[in-house]
């Protein structure tokens, strides 16, 4: 009977509409699968640190294990770190849902992106003094403003620069440049590192939520797996363009084009 209903519906519609209807149905299914996967991934990412914290609470609660001050302080240190991870994850999840809700509401105000990039570089220089190499900066003077959301552009600059520092090799420089595109209509923000690089098969998937090339290593360096997904959403909302180029063993360059504000 179901099939008959389908046949009737197909007959009532023109042949072109039939295809549209089927395509739309599979599109909805794909979106639903993505949503289910997302909830499963997010829950798993939160459960792992929660289980660790719970385990250490139980250990510390045991008088035999909880008495040695050195052990106590080591366990408390791990618990603090796992709590930081959960906090970072929830913060990124909140940013992601906010940016998604604003998808059809492009930003309107001029923002001094050069200033944001310089401030982000200064902050990272201060927090990562022990990296053994500097961030080299090439920013053209008097660049025009971009049309944007200052908070989101700060997050974008921070995520890209942070990745370059995390996945770059210690002792090698990170290169940051911000210049006008040839036509002058866009600003080109590029961050290059000399890290291990990314194999070509991973490149198209990097902006998927929770996608990590090497989850063991990525977890060690402290990522949430949401950084590039956030970057992609921010770039799209700003009507910009994101490109990631990488050579295994040589390094990675992330380039972002952002439309400038009308003079
Ligand atoms: P994470 O929080 O794990 O860093 P991201 O979304 O920022 O998540 O990045 C996704 C993955 O892409 C990372 O886990 C890492 O494997 C890879 N990646 C991102 N940036 C770089 C880079 N500059 N060099 C090498 N790999 C990178």
Automatic annotation (TrEMBL):
<protein>
    <recommendedName>
        <fullName>histidine kinase</fullName>
        <ecNumber>2.7.13.3</ecNumber>
    </recommendedName>
</protein>
<feature type="domain" description="Histidine kinase">
    <location>
        <begin position="41"/>
        <end position="262"/>
    </location>
</feature>
<dbReference type="GO" id="GO:0005886">
    <property type="term" value="C:plasma membrane"/>
</dbReference>
<keyword id="KW-0418">Kinase</keyword>
<keyword id="KW-0597">Phosphoprotein</keyword>
<dbReference type="GO" id="GO:0016036">
    <property type="term" value="P:cellular response to phosphate starvation"/>
</dbReference>
<dbReference type="GO" id="GO:0000155">
    <property type="term" value="F:phosphorelay sensor kinase activity"/>
</dbReference>
<keyword id="KW-0808">Transferase</keyword>
<keyword id="KW-0472">Membrane</keyword>
<keyword id="KW-0902">Two-component regulatory system</keyword>
<dbReference type="GO" id="GO:0004721">
    <property type="term" value="F:phosphoprotein phosphatase activity"/>
</dbReference>
